[in-house]
Amino acid sequence: MQGILLAIVLVLLIVGAVALTLSGTLWLSPLASNWGMIDNMLVITLVVTGLAFVVLNLVLAYLVWRYRARDGQKATYFAEDHKLERNLILITALGIIVMLGPGLFVYSEYIHPPREAMTVEVLAQQWRWSFRYPGADGQLGRTDPKLFAQNAFGIDVTDPAAQDDVLVTGPLHLPLNKPVVIQLRSKDVLHSFYVPEFRAKMDAVPGMVTRLWFTPTKMGTFDLLCVELCGTAHFQMRSKVIVESPKDFERWLQQQPTVAQTIKR
Amino acid sequence: MAHAVSHPTQEHHHEPTSFWSRYIFSQDHKVIAIQYMITALIVGFVGLFLSWLMRLQLGFPGEFNFINPNNYLQFMTQHGMIMIVYLLTAALLGGFGNYLIPLMIGARDMAFPFLNMLSYWTYLASVLLLLAAFFVPGGPTGAGWTLYPPQSVLPNASPGSEWGIRLMILSLAVFVAAGTMGGLNYVTTVLQMRTRGMTLMRMPLTVWGIFIASVLALFAFPALFVGGVMLLLDNLFGTSFFIPVVNLLGKQLGREGGNPILYQHLFWYFGHPEVYIVILPAMGVISDLLATHARKPIFGYKAMVISMAAIAAIGFVVWAHHMFVSGMNPYFGFWFAIATLIIAIPSAVKTYNWLLTLWKGNLHLNTPMLFAIGFISTFIIGGLTGLFLGNVIVDVPLHDTYFVTGHFHLVMGVSAIFGIFGGLYHWFPKAVGRMYSEALGKLHFWVTFVGSYLIFFPMLGEGFLGVPRRYFSFRGIESFPDIINDLNAFITVVALIVGAAQLIFVFNLVWSVFKGRKAEANPWRATTLEWQTPTTPPPHGNWGEQLPVVYRGAYDYSLPDAPQDYVPQTVPPSEKARVRV
Ligand code: HEM
Ligand SMILES: [Cu+2]
Ligand SMILES: [Cu+2]
Description:
heterodimer, A: alpha+beta, Immunoglobulin-like, 5-stranded mixed sheet, 5 helices, 36% helix, 21% strand, elongated, B: mainly alpha, Cytochrome C Oxidase, Chain A, two-stranded antiparallel sheet, binds protoporphyrin IX containing FE, binds copper (II) ion
């Protein structure tokens, strides 16, 4: 009785899990960056592990049903089979290589931004995001956390490269189809930059600069979420990302005040 | 090699006579085990209750005004810490370790009974310190169970960043002391106190699991201790181990030179082995349950031992898979991904061997066996989801989302708890001398098993959507479809039901202690030593006049030429037939 029931429940769990996955109700949000390769890796991993999930649980269900104790049934002594063990290890190793090999390849892309990428700085603090663009010279000015006492970005205003930097409190504007390196700094505690549609993610750590890169491939407005617990209002630490045509982006950027205009020396 | 123990008679083991020395300040490993287990289960219920509060908020945001963003994080932190450290670690090592090691290897007690008693009382002190945090100004820390600085220790950077975090660190430090006393005891006992004939490779897998986990604990806890002390100094004395120059709430803090990522390395150097400290004993227990109730030897005993040892060893070089997007050197990602996915192989071997143990068995599907089989299923889904998180690039979108929450609850939450439930039902007759109610046990299993899937499987899907963990509310985030609101309400309802179902378990055990049917000495017809004691429950000193002598491995079930389907370890090779009942 228990055996049949357990076998049925296991099969139902498999069916439910597969149906929920295939129904797409809880699937990735529509991709809006170049990281289709990450999605492919997710799918490869899902196929390999999903196969293992279904097969192993089906085997379990079968065993429970087939070998449940009944009158006159006896267990067969069977304690070792090296060949079988070896083959199972080989199959597992194969599955792992299929996931790990391409995975490491994509990761290598992920940590090597293209040379022509533009850099935008994202500054995190409890509980908001602000942004800095390099301005006409293409260079972000020097910063030092000790200078947070003097201005919100901790910018060294004596640095010539800082003069034309553009400071924005949000949303973050990005040009379509241009690779961008997000350079992250934090003023106070740990935070993490995450836009589900872009897939990429990186923590902001006080005292250091961290980076991630992606190319926005879809126009529109997206939620920027903080995904490293950063205190009481962590769940409200949000901003928006607006991806627009390069022309609109340039026009918008021109209208923003520069460091020279806003911070006095 | 096994040792002939120096005192074969009982004269050195004076039975304590007063109530206090017998039940309270007892040095008997069995009493200490029960003290550990009961205490752990009680804190576990506090942890469960806290999960209800979180689920109420997530399922029905705004309906329960007493839950606010501050105390949500405090409930969450206490819940996580309680479950992993004060429930699972304590129950599996302090509870099962204490009860089963001496009985399963044929010893009269632990190597150091006094230290053993001290370990329990120290553990109790750590629990009281932990719970005391609810009553201090500012309440418990809300920095997450990982206690990441700077937020955990800087004033007002997170809830409970003063007294809360101090008590938490103090409590953990005391727990580490308790765990070290216990761990030294378990390791020494296994190495030195095995009875004649009990070679290492004849030990039941439960003992192997607990033994390896204890070794892990001895190596891993110091990292937590050191990290904790440095956190405390940063909090109390203005040092900067983990604090760089920061500007908190508009103020420069005058700290300089520290690195928050250093803490993360220390924490996860402890934290990753910690998950194995929890799961290895559960794996051992499950292996014994499966073999006994399937009436079959465990498949590939040697492979099982080797894979546990391999998991433990490799487990010390994978810690930074929790830190793939932490800002550490990105090249570390390659190594930690490779090492992590290599661990999947011994883990998979264990799963295959459990399945092969069932194959051609004669499965008695009573409560312990149901939980053991449930464990296989939840471990499969939990382990497979780990392959997403270990493969660095796949972790990038999933890190710190509900996918992680679903994964670790399935693999170490539910699975380890199933190990505990299965073990408790299995050894209850020996420890108490009475049977539990099968009907209630089965009811408990069905609600818990199906419920666990319904709670935690959908979380994996939420993680695919990108829903972040440690969020008080998801209102106003347009990326997520509305369905997650209904889903969260659904999960909450199931969580309330599953939580309530745990009362069936408590009622069953408490009622059976007094009213249960009298248990036979060996109700499961098991081979291992703990079922061959002269009385049930076993007497003080466990074995009466003569220590048992072991002649065979722990899994002689359904031997082809034996007249009955099990041959206890104490039966000499020539006398397969003579079984003590
Ligand atoms: C029915 C049982 C349980 C339910 C409903 C439950 C629910 C939850 C919820 C709602 C969270 C917070 C999620 C968030 O806001 O990010 C959480 C976190 C957590 N739970 Fe559970 N839980 C249960 C059992 C367990 C068990 C048995 C363990 C043991 C391993 C466990 C370990 C944790 C940990 C480590 C965290 C993370 C805390 C943190 O983020 O700092 N839980 N759980
Ligand atoms: Cu944040
Ligand atoms: Cu880990």
